[in-house]
Amino acid sequence: MRTLIVTAFVSVDGVMEAPGGGPGYRNAGWTFKEVEFDEAAYEIKGREQEEAGALLLGRRSYEEFAPVWPTMEEFARYNTLPRYVVSTTLERDDPRWPATILRSLDDVAELKEQSDGGPILVHGSAQLGAALADAGLVDRYYLLVYPLLLGAGKRLFSTADKDATRLRLVEHEAYSNGIQKQVYDVVR
Asked: What 3-state DSSP class applies to 70?
């Protein structure tokens, strides 16, 4: 079975919306506008790119990433990986960044059941990440927690009324700029 990992930049109050920029969010770009850069904090980003066997995205994230990521040198490995998009409305993938469209969380569960292919990495998809967590499909979280309270914005976790999910901290580090790396395994 493949491991499903949600990776996110998140504020202390749980907001993950538009960390690198984007239209329509008042705090867009908060990861670089509000916190001093410390290269050491991003070590995990290079590691997750090397370890990943596939990318899984929600429709909105895919539509934002598809025109940009193929041209970005720092995402060279991601551009070689199989990509999957969970969407009930996307009609076809973007030819610049081809992907397989999955129509349901059951399709994601089937993808996880494959015995080979390496970890599946979920990037930048708040709604999808929350749905996957609520469905019990997430195995691990890679979080870079920024020392910010953003107030409003899309959150990493849903507000659904559900039983507690236990997490085990398996790796952590604090950096000079206040960012904390927190890696959690979901306890089953």
From this structure: helix
Average pLDDT over residues 32-40: 94
Q: What is the DSSP letter of 101?
A: E
Cα-to-chain-centroid distance, residue 180:
16
Ramachandran angles phi, psi of 111, nearest 5° = -60, -40
CA-CA distance, 64 to 92, in Å (whole number)? 15
Under 8 Å between Cβ of 16 and 156: yes
Which sign, positive or negative, has the C-alpha torsion 42, 44, 8, 59?
positive
Q: 């770009």: which residue's tokens?
A: 29
pTM: 0.94
CB atoms within 10 A of CB 76: 11
Distance between CA 145 and CA 174 in Å, rounded? 9
